[in-house]
Amino acid sequence: MSTTFYQQYPKFHVAVDCIIFGFNKGQLKVLLQKRPFEPRQGEWSLMGGFVNRDEDIDDAAKRVLRSLTGLHDLYMRQVGAFGSVHRDSGNRVVSIAYFALVDIDKVSSDLNYQNAAYWEDLENLPPLLFDHQEMVRKALLCLRTLVSSRPIGFHLLPPLFTLTQLQQLYEAILGDSIDKRNFRKRINEMPFIEKTEEIDRKTSKRGAILYRFNERAFDEVKIFKL
Amino acid sequence: MSTTFYQQYPKFHVAVDCIIFGFNKGQLKVLLQKRPFEPRQGEWSLMGGFVNRDEDIDDAAKRVLRSLTGLHDLYMRQVGAFGSVHRDSGNRVVSIAYFALVDIDKVSSDLNYQNAAYWEDLENLPPLLFDHQEMVRKALLCLRTLVSSRPIGFHLLPPLFTLTQLQQLYEAILGDSIDKRNFRKRINEMPFIEKTEEIDRKTSKRGAILYRFNERAFDEVKIFKL
DNA sequence: TCAAAAGTGTTAAGTTTACACCCATGA
DNA sequence: TCATGGGTGTAAACTTAACACTTTTGA
């Protein structure tokens, strides 16, 4: 029987840990949790969970993300596996890190409250449990690489956004300032970023034009370009 | 006791699978193995192994790589975790894929023979076991991204190499042809690629200058640039 | 009326691409 | 002597970077 051969090898707990990025007031944020169980209860950590017996690891990540945000569809990518022997002081756990991008306004604050989860500025994170700091670092690298080649930033913004918001988002992700005119010129060349009729008056007296990401138009560009 | 909390969760076999890239005669190659055990014994697969109880996952990958190549120091990077429920038909196994770059001449052919391992052209791979095809695809994407931003190609070449070899290597990795003069111009601007006094006469009557990668010079460039 | 954010083009610098011939040598 | 792979520079196209003032309006 085939399982016999496998059975001589050790088994491990397998977990997922999620780096949930949000964006608000020009700041990139990460959703952190006060760890609700021992060991090291109360320390700041990423939201995680163990993989279930009949669950794909990606589905485990989706489940954890859903349980903390209430969101069913969100942008999520694997960052990598973390498997040092002593990375978790409780027991041997191999953990797969995922990052997710969410519209911070759509996240359920009830669920955040129930899970003792809080948005913290990426620039000013508290010390984190285990290797979670390293997971965040790698997730940010992943995000930077992706955002430079694909329009995924929209997942961090509300459906309608101003160009100033979009620019601040890119600056926050890339950690560098961008020339306003050059930025707007580039955006103007992207047919999938559409001007709307709406005006935002929250952040300026004059008001700023609201834009929208048109996924359909983006897919068309892809067809012709790739 | 802290382990109590963890114990309610399931455990899984955790494996590593290695995509070992080599380069010979203008072709990128992958080292494949005839799977030596059931289930699906005899099918083409990547070289893999289970993670040991007190072993980091990276160390497990190094061990597997060493057992098949005889090499202790090789360039290796994690590709990602693969964890679909039914990816392995033998049992539930979460597998972490790693790719490695080796100088094909330094690989022990005795060990290859003992492990029923063979170099196959990347362009012309046989059907592979489980999700190994997908692992190779992701590894190649990883490799392309890395090779475009860092000088890691040297790990696939002998210590001394000609510019033609180097160009063919880049062409094989990127899957695109490169203009010879533009390529050489770029290489010339890299102080860490050093001309030597040696001439290679294997591939041409006239002979070609052999070059060498100077890691120390590369590190100096890094210090000033980063 | 003024403070605060929105919006708008041009030029220079740098990078990338395209392209064709001579060289050295062993067979 | 000729076939084979090695080696070399320039100009055009394109991309990126630098830069400053006017507009609108609520307080």
Q: Would you write up a description of this structure?
A:
Two copies of one chain form a homodimer. Chain A is an alpha+beta fold and 226 residues long. Chain A has two domains: 9-146, Nucleoside Triphosphate Pyrophosphohydrolase; 151-221, Winged helix-like DNA-binding domain superfamily/Winged helix DNA-binding domain (Arc Repressor Mutant, subunit A). The first copy, chain A, has seven helices and ten strands. Chain A has helices at 2-7, 57-69, 109-114, 132-149, 163-174, 180-188, 215-225, and strands spanning 11-24, 27-34, 44-45, 47-50, 75-82, 93-101, 117-121, 161-162, 193-200, 208-213. In chain A, a hairpin with a 2-residue loop joins β1 (11-24) and β2 (27-34). Chain A binds chain B through residues 2-3, 5-6, 9-14, 37-39, 50-58, 78, 80-81, 83-85, 89-94, 96, 145, and chain B through 2-3, 5-6, 9-14, 37-39, 50-58, 78, 80-81, 83-85, 89-94, 96, 145. β1 of chain A pairs antiparallel with β1 of chain B, so a sheet runs across the interface. The first copy, chain A, binds a DNA duplex (27 and 27 nucleotides) through residues 162-164, 179-182, 184-185, 201, 203-209.
